[in-house]
Model the fold of this input.
Amino acid sequence: SGCSKKKEPVTDSAYMLGTHLNITIWTENEDEGKKVIKECFKRISEIEKKMSVNIKDSEINNINKNAGKEFVKVSAETSKVLNKALKYGEISNGAFDLTVGKFVKLWGIGTYNERIPSKSEIDDALKYVDYKLLKKDEKNGYKLDKEGMRIDLGGIAKGYAADEAYRILKSNGIENAVINLGGNIFTLGTRPDGEIWKIGIQDPFEPTGTYMGIVQFSDKAIVTSGNYERFFIKNNKRYHHIIDPKTGYPSENGIISTTIITNHSIDADALSTSVYILGVKKGLDLIEKLDDVECIIVTKNRKVYLSSGMKDKFKIKNNSFQIEN
Ligand code: ADP
Ligand code: MG
Ligand code: MG
Done:
């Protein structure tokens, strides 16, 4: 950029959307840099206020409270995220379902109320989970058809938030940055030395920060869903937070983590959850059909499946994992 001063990293963290957020940028002006990151966090806090189910008066909770009763008008951006979520419901053939909230509440995974629901509770809850029962009108109004239904945007809202952070950094002229919203990574530009960003893929069997492989991408959203993010263990069995809407139980198909790489984090987020539930075969088929989307799937038996565009972009670091072809 022709500046004589050397760029230094400026980093800041926050806790929102139920997760740790961290943004690091490289800049000649530390004060400006800090301000820009604060602006990102302020934006994310606005998103949380509208879209979180853990905030009493969020727009999403207003829709939930009025389930079976009346349409609730929401902001343009909440409408955008809802429409994306509905779209991924269609694309994934219902694997991604924004009305999964009833199950999320029943299992309580990651809360003080976590427990294994009874079979009859699950059977009953199944009647309240179906994205097709979210109706919309022309004025950003939404209504859940049945009282008791619950929208939960936990599988997509962080993605939208990461896109907004990226947009804010870009529009402030930032050229080198890494956004990390609880595992939703977005790389901006290059590393400060001009090299392409290298991002570690979490080893699902090891503590956070242990990587099983590396990907190299610039200006891409990289989102991972894993069964190690949020779970409880009972009688030696792990119950995690990614629920198969067709059964009401945590998805069990051999997959242990899915990583999606694409241009927008909102898409990567919805797809990481979708592919996790769809399984290896259907998941890869879906990703191959979509333009500019790549994925890495890791299974419990340490096999790694890559989409076709990933083969020369992923480097394995731990040879106890085996890449399948
Ligand atoms: P993480 O929250 O760890 O990033 P995901 O992006 O995969 O993981 O999202 C999991 C969250 O999405 C759950 O905590 C829940 O709020 C919601 N969720 C769970 N199952 C589904 C599903 N089948 N479709 C849509 N959202 C889901
Ligand atoms: Mg997701
Ligand atoms: Mg996620």
